[in-house]
Every structure is written in structure tokens, then in C-alpha cells.
């Protein structure tokens, strides 16, 4: 007796189980019974791939064989990782590089540059697949330090651990050393060249303040609905944070949990265009924990 198993794209014919010669099978019958499995048909072909866009940003989420990369403008892209993906860490300008790293070295918060592939015919929803992922060894070390909560007890690391647990409601635990406001056009979240320069100057100044952390809070004017303003304030805060970390080199573990406050806490009246312009802002607060502040 033969059993036929059918699967999509494959037809498998199973030969009858071989029986001992004493059970009445001839040698010729045994030869046929031991023939094994015959496979007919063709396996589905993998979709043809072509070069996709190069994505530069920070890994903001990982889930199985996929990762989310968020760019400096706040846009997020889902990218698949497979066995053919080349993962490479560069040691620096004069350092060596390692190009056979495992996917588990891709940690949240790491800046990466991803070369991608995409299906030629738009199949699989046009999902991007990483062909090569590059990052700096020092960024991997920083991300691993945050994830593993290392036992180092340097003052900056102690402040970093506190920062990861920070919430806006804990603002009374910190001394505000300075505040810089970044302003936006109505309904927009784009940073001007002047704003970008000011943000990096703020980061440089904060580096000179011992144990300094940042708290970034986004706001809007009264234009638009409550829901729209909440989303816009959060988008503005995220845009500022991404630029501070990616372009200005501010470490993620020195950032308190950001938030969007929509129309709350206006700096000026929303009854005039000038007042609204002041309220469309992101406040970058430089803080120091009261427990370590010498003042």
C-alpha cells in the first residue's frame, strides 16, 4: 500500500513499509519497499530582492527577527533580520572591526546604519530585510551597560541608573540647573538649523555639569484638538531627543523619561500670535539629583 501526502508546492509519495523476507516479500518487493521517499513538484521560490534604502537611526524596539529603527526626524521603520544579515561593529577610526556578530548584539538604544533589501515585485508587503548592520563598538558597550545594569558604581553610572527609573512626577527630586526652549511652527515638529546648533551647544554645556541629566518636555499652543495636540507634543519631544542622542552625542542613559504636555503650562497667553509662538516649544531641562548636587 502507498500513502500520498500532499503539501503546498510539494507532492510526497511514501513507499510501503519494508517487511522481513519471512513475511512473504520477495527480494524484488523488498527492494521496492526500501526505495524511500519520492518528491515531485517544485518548492516555492524566494522573492527576487533589490537594494533598498539605507536607514540611519537608533534601535527603538526588538521583537524576534525584526527590529524598529527610529531616525533623527522621528520616523520609524521595521526591518527584518535573517541568517544572511551581516552584523558589523567598528572599533573606531584606527580600530579593527568584527563582522560575524550575532543578532542578539543588536540592543535597544544603539545607533546603527542599516543597508537593506526589498522585494522587486512588492511581495511580502514590501518588507525591508537587513543585508548589513553597522554600529560602533563603544555604542554596543554603552547599550549593554544599560541592559545588564552593571555593578560599576562610578558617580555617573549611579546617576544613569536613577535616570532610567525617572518619571516627570519625580521632578522635585532634582535641581533644575538651566532650561533651553526649542520653538516650532504651527502643527510642525521639524527642527531648524539654529535649533539644532542650540541643542548641541546645550549638550556640550551639560557635559560640563557633574551628574547632569536631561528632561525633555514637549508643548503646543491652543490650536487643534486635545488629541492632536497631545500627539504633536510627544512627537516634538521625540524629535529633540533623537537629535540630542544621534547628532549631539548625549547618552540615552542620561535622559529622564520624556513626555508631551500638549497645552499645559503655557509660557504666554494663547490669545495672541506672539503668545502662541512662545508656547509651541520643547523645554530641555538640565537637572542634577538633589542627592548628589553640591549646591
Short recap of the structure:
With 295 residues, this protein is α+β, with helices and mostly antiparallel strands. The protein has six helices and 14 strands. The chain folds into three domains: 38 residues, no CATH class; 96 residues, Nucleic acid-binding proteins (OB fold (Dihydrolipoamide Acetyltransferase, E2P), Beta Barrel), CATH 2.40.50.140; 137 residues, OmpA-like domain (60s Ribosomal Protein L30, Chain: A, 2-Layer Sandwich), CATH 3.30.1330.
What does this structure look like?
The chain has three domains: 3-40, no CATH class; 49-144, OB fold (Dihydrolipoamide Acetyltransferase, E2P) (Beta Barrel), CATH 2.40.50.140; 153-289, 2-Layer Sandwich (60s Ribosomal Protein L30, Chain: A), CATH 3.30.1330.60. It starts with a strand and ends in a 6-residue tail after the last strand. The strands form three sheets. It has a five-stranded mixed beta barrel. A four-stranded mixed beta sheet has the order 11-14-12-13. The protein has a three-stranded antiparallel beta sheet with strand order 1-2-3, with no helix packed on it. It is α+β, with helices and mostly antiparallel strands. The protein contains six helices and 14 strands. Residues 1-25, 29-39, 92-99, 149-158 and 160-169 have low confidence and may be disordered. A hairpin with a 2-residue loop joins β1 and β2 (10-14).
